[in-house]
Amino acid sequence: GVQLNEIDTSDFDNEEKLQSLLTQRYDFLGETYDHRKKTMCSTRKTIEKLAATWASRSSWTYRQMVCHFGVLMYGSSTLRIDMSHRFASLRLLSSVVKRLQAAPGLWDAPLSDPLSPMVVAELTSWTECLSENAAVPIPTYETSECTRVISVDASGWGFAALYVDLLTGHTQIHQERWSAASGLRGIGSVLTEPAGVKRAIYRFVQPDSEGAVLIQTDHEPLAQTNPRGYSKTWSYNEVHQAMRHFKARFEMQHIAGSSHPMDSPSRGEPLTQDSQASLADKAKALIVTTTVVASRKTFGAPLAGARYSGISSAVGKSPPNVNT
Q1: Which of 59, 110, 263, 269 is in the most buried spot, having the most CB atoms within 10 Å?
Q2: Which tens digits make up the pLDDT trace of 12-42?
């Protein structure tokens, strides 16, 4: 492809030459763009670097391992490869980064411990997936409006969720105590909040329904991971993986627990018809914005031709058991 650094930037002032450029295939910042096919993929140099770092894994230093992760994560962003189920690998990277922050002199030292079989299996699969370098559509960053809101909260008692259709005004409410078999009774928010969000999505959103859905949660760490679509926390990753079974796009809004309309119901407070209407009004009043980006490189509904390793084009398939 054409390298952008080989092009005279003065051409950008010439409309005709600029339009000609936009019909070419060129490389830019590790990505190859083909404006004739309207697709993008990783550059050949990126894939070659990935192969080289992977081939030297038996003698990795900390720097080389982090470099390999960097190429994997950047390439996955380009190719829309799901990272949310690479849990063991992400946890390893997190622990290594903390170790290097505490001891910067280790960067060029060999790894002190061998990679676990689970990490090796994940990194092998991840590297092979990225090496295929299957082109994906160039994303568009148009915006759309969330027309549905799910306000959900959870506790060691159970969870409660309120669904509001902003176009029709239709509301539904669900309150459920955790079953003994769920293992969630009396458990902390890192497990119960994601479980509540996951079950609320499956209850109120049809897999083939399109548009954008706003989810209100008081669990800020989960909301913060939504833009990138993965986390080193397993329970958060389960939510991101579940979202990929839907054509709808999901935006998350963090609101304080003291203001959350479903805070008391999630702790077992009985619901009435009057309280349902009041809670719906409260949820709508808390909406800051309903604007959501329609297409993201690392998160969103599966695109034609895009490969989400392990969950490829999951739309239309039966969702997994929501009780797990």
Answers
A1: 263
A2: 556 666 666 666 788 888 899 888 888 999 9
